[in-house]
Amino acid sequence: MRILIAEDDTRLLKSLVHIFEMNHYAVDGVDNGVDAFDYASSGEYDGLVLDIMMPGMDGVTLLKKLRASGITTPALILTAKTETYQKIEGLDAGADDYLPKPFSTGELLARVRAMLRRKDNFTPDLLIFDGLTLNRSTYELVCGDNTLPLSGKEFQVMEMLMQSRGVIVTAEQLITHIWGWNTNVDTSVVYVHVSNIRKKLDQLGAQLTIKFVRNAGYLLEAKK
User: Fold this and answer.
1) pLDDT tens, position by position, 79-113
2) Is 2 helix (H, G, I), strand (E, B) or coil?
3) CATH assignment of 126-222, given 1.10.8.60, 3.30.565.10, 3.40.640.10, 1.10.10.10?
């Protein structure tokens, strides 16, 4: 999947590009509406993530021009403003969804996946690793004939670990992914969610566990 991100906040743009690349998307990032229009006009993208307020051309104007030129690429609008009329304006311009700032990484990725599915682009609903399945549609862990539900935060922790199989994920990465950039959540909250997931893995009879690597982070690996 190829995503175009248009965001004039350089720090946020860099973070968004990193997040999508970590989740196996091919990503291009631009910081203004004019470049965004030029890139999006190529028709080479599966999805667009567009900020409303950008120099050169705002997100609503950009979408109107794209739709008028026949570009139907699905688009998610990011906006720091919460007024209803702006949401309506963006949707009327051709956006498929909107997400107000600040937002969590997990919600952003879930909305993009849903947006792409609605346009008949294939994004797997299941993550499978060593006999364990994470169902992204139902927030359930499945092992053999056993199934257990996960809370929203547990799901997001497990999703990131399964996507990063064999790679250590730091507590800071989990916090940013789940709670966003400007959160006061500390690493003890991550530990609580990991502990709950470990118990559910044991209940399921899974042959996987979440290992804590001192001074590094968490790793999903086979039980020894």
Assistant:
1) 876 656 677 787 888 888 888 888 888 889 988 98
2) strand
3) 1.10.10.10
